[in-house]
Amino acid sequence: MGIEVRNLTKEFNDKKVLNNISFKVEDGETLGVVGFSGSGKSTLLKIICGLLYPNSGEIITTPNNADIAMTFQYSALFDFLTVFENIAFPLIERKEFRNKYTQKELKEIVAQKLKIVGLQGIENKYPSELSGGMQKRVGFARAIVTNPKIILYDEPTAGLDPVSSTLIENYIVELKKELNASCLVVTHQLSTIKRATDKAIMLYEGEIVFKGSTQELLKGSNPYTQQFVTASIKGPMQIKSL
Amino acid sequence: MINIKKTLFWQFLNLLEYELKEFLITLGNIGKDFARVIKSMLALKLDKGALVQQCSRFSIDSLPITLTIVAMTSIIIAMQIAPELAKQGAGNYVGSLSALVMVRELSAIMSGFAIISMIGSSYASEIASMAVTEQISAMKVLRVDPVEYLIVPRFLSGIIMMPFVVVISTFCGLVCAAVISNLTAEITYLNFITSMWHGLFIKDIFVALLKSSFFGGTIAIISCSCGYSTRGGALEVGTSTTRAVVWSFVAIAIWDYIFASIFYL
Asked: How does B246-261 read in b/e, with b if 16+ C-beta sit within 10 Å?
């Protein structure tokens, strides 16, 4: 088992953003997390990776205290560092890796990770010199440089053209195979759900309204998933601003 | 009947409440970040490469503007006092007066102002930009402590390099004062230097160095803390930078008062 979330609840200013959320993701499995904007998806990822604390509930990882990597919606690359320095950053700065690798070894590791995401030879470029898709892939390479067992993707294909999205989706699948990692993908895009995930949960107003396989999400009879898949305004889910 | 909540007085009270809240939050954040920095330093968690880089930035990058401001201030003061003192037959005191003014007060405070505008504002804005673009969150997820990586080297560089900046700017200011005194009141360089040493004491130099170190550390911690606590977008980056500059100005003015009270009252 990779990661298990039990009865997770998070409140902001007395408003429940997540209410009693529970799910499991096994090793080598990818869980899609879908839902409207503001349904609590990103909050869920931030709690899992330790950026936020839950009000109650627990997160169990196997192995205990496993390395969790996260890719951010806007890549969050360090703009004052080169691609090489960005990817090697955890290996240079993290306490347990400090002085563990020689410069030559670091170069080899970075080159290998860049090869996995199809971006050889850009080590000396700065993030501002790369396209949005390339930045995301560098973000992936940085996330997997410590060979994590759990990878979280926050809107990995948001803002990308369809071809770049497919490329990113393929890399999500390949990275999972490469590391046998448990992955969580927060997304709005059906193509990403279809291509990159094995199962999915759907959040609405902080609660899970669907839990099942990707096929069930896309073709099942759940009124929430039906409304999401058909992009219909009518249905059980109401966007408050409309 | 008058609705009290719509009166100007009520709006003024709301504004006062908001400002007070902001003040306490900022003070709390600075205190919290300072405690984290001290904790990291006590645990000897120090990135030496980052420290050298920040020291070079704090001193070399700020020197042109610092020297310009201190030199101009010194020139203006010498232009005002040298001819006047010479006319009164007190030309022998121009050097000591210039040295006292420069070493005790002007050099440190003017260098502080220059460093705030040059380095403090850039610390605040770059860390704030990192905060709003999730770079600091990414650092945390990568299990690298942002306080240790970003704030500690900047804080230490402020403490270490500010005295150097002040020494260089004081020297530059005194050279300018000597030249101007010579040109405007025909006070010889030898006379100026002799007078200068008569007016100065070791205590003045010691206090100036200690004070500048406090100024450097204060500017760095306030600027970094204001940047680090930024949430939101471009507007908030600007607000944080402004807050860092204003708080730093006020803080070094308070430090200056405290040092003057302790050592010269």
From this structure: ebbbebbeebbeebee
Domain ranges of chain A: 1-67+150-242, 74-147
Q: Do A74 and B134 touch (CB under 8 A)?
A: yes
pLDDT at B111 over 80: yes
* Paired strand residues for A154: A186
Residues in A 142-171 with any Cβ partner in B closer than 8 A: 142
Question: What CATH number labels A1-67+150-242?
Answer: 3.40.50.300
Considering only CB atoms, B138 lies closest to which of A76, A80, A94, namely: A76
Residue B157 pLDDT level (bands cut at 50, 70, 90): very high
Quick: pLDDT tens for A45-94: 999 999 999 999 999 987 777 889 999 988 899 999 999 999 999 999 88
CA atoms within 13 A on the CB side of B97: 16
Best probe of the A interface among B134, B140, B142, B231, by most A CBs < 10 A, is B142
| Phi, psi dihedrals of residue A116, rounded to the nearest 5° | -60, -40
Residues 6+ apart with CB under 8 A from A192: A32, A156, A157, A165, A168, A169, A172, A185
Q: What is the mean pLDDT of chain B?
A: 91
Confidence (pTM): 0.86
